[in-house]
Write a structure and sequence with these properties.
Layout lengths: L2 E2 L13 E3 L5 E3 H4 L4 E6 L5 H19 L2 E7 L11 H11 L5 E3 L4 H6 L3 E2 L1 E5 L5 E5 L15 H12 L10 E4 L5
Parallel strand pairs: 4-5, 5-6
Antiparallel strand pairs: 1-10, 2-3, 4-8, 7-10, 8-9
Length: about 180
């Protein structure tokens, strides 16, 4: 049964984080932030919603980077139960997809809890001051990618960057629930 993200408390400031990534580096909020903002995508390896979204997420991450917005993926799932989400599998997925953004491991699940993430893929879009301006989906795709779907995440972040406009219409993310530790 899919999980839908709740309504966002827009304007909240991004919480600090320090997490290891599949590229062997450790990232903080400051090292992740782009000139015009940051998108954090809670994602994982096994979720069919994430698997179908990856091509569009990669496309949009590259386009966002062109306008000064960086993207980071975070996997917060309990890998002791969902072994496909273990760190070594994250490395393999990042390499196989040639992810153009850091793929971070939130082993303690503290970052997901702090941000209030509930599902994968779930996007948090922050402006240049790291204030939350978008929370929701990449696009309308679900378990199958829709090649001509409106690019909700990209269009929202572009409007925030170019016009300082927070999109009035924000669509919740829908996907697999984050797999919390007992």
């Amino acid at each position: 049964m899919p999980t839908e993200s709740p309504t966002a408390e827009l304007g909240a400031t991004a919480s600090a984080l320090t997490l290891p990534a599949t590229d062997g580096k450790t990232y903080t909020l400051d090292t992740l932030k782009g000139e015009n903002g940051l998108v954090i995508v809670f994602m994982c390896n096994h979720c069919p919603y994430v698997k179908s979204a990856i091509p569009n997420l990669i496309r949009d991450a590259r386009a966002l980077q062109q306008i000064g917005i960086n993207v980071a993926g975070i996997n917060s799932n309990d890998a002791t139960v969902y072994t496909d989400d273990a760190f070594d599998r994250m490395i393999a997925v990042a390499q196989a997809w040639q992810l153009p953004f850091p793929y971070l491991h939130d082993e303690t699940q503290d970052v997901a809890r702090t941000y209030g993430a509930v599902c994968t893929p779930e996007c948090f879009g922050f402006d240049r001051d790291l204030r939350l301006r978008y929370r929701g989906r990449i696009d309308a795709s679900r378990k199958e990618a829709l090649p001509d779907a409106r690019r909700d995440l990209f269009e929202a972040m572009r409007a925030i960057t170019e016009n300082d406009e927070t999109p009035a219409e924000q669509y919740p993310a829908l996907g697999c629930s984050i797999k919390w530790r007992a």
